[in-house]
Design a protein that fits this description.
Blueprint (H helix, E strand, L loop, with lengths): L5 H25 L4 H30 L5 H4 L19 E7 L8 H4 L1 E8 L6 E8 L15 E5 L6 H6 L3 H10 L7 E5 L20 H16 L9 E6 L1 H12 L4 E7 L19 H7 L1 H7 L6 E9 L4 H12 L5 E9 L4 H22 L2
Parallel strand pairs: 4-5, 4-6, 6-7, 7-8, 8-9
Antiparallel strand pairs: 1-2, 2-3, 3-5
Helix pairs in contact: 1-2, 6-12
Length: 373
């Protein structure tokens, strides 16, 4: 049974209920003196609390998509590896499956389609799975020569790409907004920023390690344009993410404005952390460390011609004050454009991001649509 399955959660809840009931029934018998009775009471209490916390943890994981499987939870991730053939001429993007858009009925020309793909980076030598949402218009005969704006959508860390589909509802939201005329039909490419799991690379080209930034800046755009009808003009792509993915989105949009015309960071932070999940990202390279620090970059590097969106909440988000500072810092560049979504309250969670995603996609659609005119 999978980590996120209904059966596992139901079993944990049932075990917690049975242990609680057993504790009530057996407590009078164990209310005596002696090591046996004390050990029995302690065992029942510990077992009940352990199973209860397990049930709560499983429910939280299902709600927020922290881990996709038992292997993911324990850092094994046996199914993440993809063999990369760097033979010249081979398509670096391979479709391995497809599925319906949640909440949509009908065939691809009416409902769109989600493809499961594997992307092999020729520059970075990184391989990563992803989900690609293709809007209904992509399959309609009258649009067979049309090119579409596209956006890369990133999870947080550790995150699961499937959560972007099932929990944050990106494809369904994009389809509904396009049907309402609030944004153009858009291709969405949904994946984790953790392209070298289980390490959190923070989308950095780690010296002697994973070249995560090159994957997103060079390999991924090239693979998309080689396989799909994606706008080919400079700046014809957008990038959006939450938490770690939000930091990556802002950084990559700032560093590569000729590739990404707009970047949106939902609940983002503005400099890469160094901790047990990241390891030593910079290996003593001070120039690389400064470049990954968005505060330093905005103060010292030439202001890029790109558009940024940041989100936060007055109550519930720890990045509120930093986000206000970031807005002022970007405004001070005189060239980079900045927009924001500030909620009255909302924590660092899926519910908050679901409230921000519709407006974010509208904003992104307008910026990318402008690049195609």
């Amino acid at each position: 049974m999978g980590l996120t399955s209904d059966a596992v959660l139901a079993a944990a809840v049932l075990a917690a209920v049975l242990l609680f009931a057993g504790t009530l029934v057996l407590w009078p018998r164990l209310a005596r003196r002696g090591w046996g009775a004390v050990t029995g009471r302690a065992g029942l209490l510990l077992a009940t609390q352990l199973v209860l916390f397990t049930a709560v943890g499983l429910a939280a994981n299902r709600a927020f998509g922290f881990y996709a499987s038992w292997a993911d939870l324990f850092g094994q991730e046996k199914e993440q590896g993809v063999v990369v053939d760097h033979t010249p001429g081979r398509d670096p993007l391979r479709v391995v499956g497809s599925q319906r858009v949640p909440g949509a009925a009908g065939g691809p020309a009416a409902a769109g389609r989600i493809q499961r793909v594997e992307i092999a980076g020729r520059t970075s030598r990184i391989a990563s799975p992803a989900y690609v949402y293709l809007p209904p218009e992509y399959f309609q005969p009258r649009h067979r020569t049309r090119v579409f704006p596209a956006a890369v959508v990133l999870t947080g860390y550790p995150g699961t790409a499937s959560a972007l589909v099932d929990k944050l509802h990106y494809p369904r939201t994009a389809r509904e907004l396009a049907r309402a005329g609030r944004m153009p039909p858009m291709i969405l490419v949904m994946l984790r920023p953790t392209v070298a799991p289980p390490r959190d690379t923070e989308c950095v080209d780690v010296p002697g390690g994973p070249r995560a930034e090159s994957f997103f800046a060079v390999d991924l755009p090239g693979a998309l344009r080689g396989h799909y009808r994606v706008a080919g003009k400079p700046g014809g792509l957008g990038i959006v993410g939450n938490s770690t993915g939000g930091y990556c989105a802002l950084k990559i949009a700032l560093h590569h404005p000729g590739v990404y015309g707009a970047g949106a960071g939902l609940s983002a932070y503005y400099e890469a952390p160094l901790d047990a999940t990241t390891g030593d990202l910079f290996r003593g390279d001070e120039a690389l460390r400064r470049r990954a620090d968005l505060w330093w970059y905005l103060a010292h590097a030439p202001a890029p011609d790109t558009s940024l969106l940041v989100t936060t909440s007055r109550k519930g988000e720890s990045n509120y004050r930093d986000t206000l500072r970031f807005i002022e810092r970007v405004k001070g560049t005189g060239r980079t454009r900045i927009s924001s979504i500030v909620l009255e309250s909302g924590g660092h969670n899926f519910n908050t991001w679901r409230r921000e995603i519709p407006a974010t996609l509208e904003w992104l659609g307008k910026r990318l649509d402008d690049t195609r005119k």
